[in-house]
Amino acid sequence: MKILLPLFTVIALVVIAFVGVQANLHALFGIVIPYAAVLIFMFGFIFKVLKWGRSPVPFRIPTTAGQMKSFAPWIKQNKLDNPSSRLGVFGRMLLEVFLFRSLFRNTKTQLYPGTKLTYGSEKFLWLGGLAFHWSFLIIFVRHFRFFMQTVPYPIQLAEHLDSFLQIGAPLLYITDVVLVGAVTFLFLRRVFMPQIKYISLPADYFPLFLILGIATTGIMMRYFTKVPVVRVKELVMGLVSFQPVIPEGIGSIFYIHLFLVSTLLAYFPLSKLMHMGGVFLSPTRNMANNSREVRHINPWNYPVHVHTYDQYEDDFREKMKKAGLPVEKE
Amino acid sequence: MKNAGKVVIGVVIGFVVVFGFPFYYNLGKANVPPKLKYDTPAILQYEKQYGKKECVESKEFMSAEHMQLLNQWRDAVVRNGDRIYVNSRGESFHMSLQNTCLNCHSNKKEFCDKCHNYLAVNPYCFSCHIVPKEKQS
Q: Residue A245 in contact with residue A234, Cβ under 8 Å?
C-alpha cells in the first residue's frame, strides 16, 4: 500500500495530462499549470527557508568526525571535518553538497553470523545517490538549451560531453542511462532491504516514481515516439519570455512530461525534496567548531537578574563583620 | 545568532541569479522559431518536373526521424556496402548524404543549421563529409 499509493498517484497524473490534452486543454497544461507550479516552487521554497532562517541557531556542535583545533601544537587539526574557520566550513559544505561525505559514512547493521551484531560499511547508497543527483543536475543544465534563444557555450559543452559516446541518433545521453539506473536502484533498495522498507513512507516512493515518470517520458520523446522539438522550444521560449504560445502539433507525451515536471516543482517545497535548501542549514555541517575561541551567547537568553558576591558583601558587610565572617573589602 | 541573513543571501543567489537566469537572459529577444527554405535550384527543378516537393519520405517522418535514417544509411553503406534505399512509396534512392540529400538541400546554412543551431544540436556529419559550397546571399 505504501508503494502502490504513490505509484497510482503518478499513473493518475499521467492519465490526467493525457485526457486533458485530448480534451484540447493545451493552454491549461502548457501555460497555466507550469506558471502556477513555478510560482508555488519559488514562493514555497523561499517561505520555507526564511522560516528556517528565523529559528535560533544552536551552540556550535563539537561532535563532528575529526580532531578539533587544539592549543597543543603537536595535535593536528582535521581542518575539513572539524573546521574552526569560515573557509573550512565553506570547504566542508562544498564537499557535502557535491560529494555527499555524510552518506559516505553510512553504515549497515547486521546480525552476523546469526546473533552477533555487526556494523559494516555501506557505500551503495552514497554511490547511488551521487549517480542520481549528478545526472539529474546535468540533465537540468542540459535542458537550458530549450530555455535560451542562443545557447551559451557551457550548456553546449555539458550536452556535448554527455553525448560523447556517440551511440545511435539522436545521440544517447550517458546521464539518461545513469539516472534511470540510479533511481531504479534507489527504489529497489527501499523494497528489498527490510529495515529500509519498514521506515519508507509514500512520501519516499512518490518522488522516485515521479522522477522515473519524468525520465521515461523524456527518454521516449528523444529516442522513440519523437515530438517536433522546434515547436517544443517555441512553447518553452514563450513561457520564459512571458509571451506564451501554444504551437500546433506537439504530441501529448510532451504535455505529460511537462505536467509531471510541474507536479515535481509544486510538490517540492511541501516535501522532503526541500533537503536541497536544507542541506545548507545542517547544524553539524555549517558551523565552525570554535567554541574555545569565541564566546557564543545563547540567542534566546532573557535578561537574568544577577546578584554577584561583591554586591552581596556590600549589602551585608557590617553584619558579616559582627558575626566574625571574613570579608574581602574592609 | 540566527541564519536569516545568510538564508537571504542564499535565496538571492539561488533564485535571482540561477533560477531567474533564463527569464532575464531572454528579455527583449523575440521568440522566433526557425523557418526552413526549400527553394534551392534542385528542389525548384524537381517541383517543375513533378508538380510537388517531396523528400525520400514524408515531411513529418523526415523532420522527426532524419537522424535515424541517416544513421541507417551510414551503417548500410559503410558496413554492408548497400547503396540502394527503398522508401515507403516503393521508390529507390542512392544512399548518399552528399550526392542525394545535399543535392537537393544544397543550402546547409538555411536548412540543416537553422534547427540545429536553434536547439544547439551539433551533429558530426560534417566531420567526415564535405560541407557543400554555398552562394553568399
A: yes
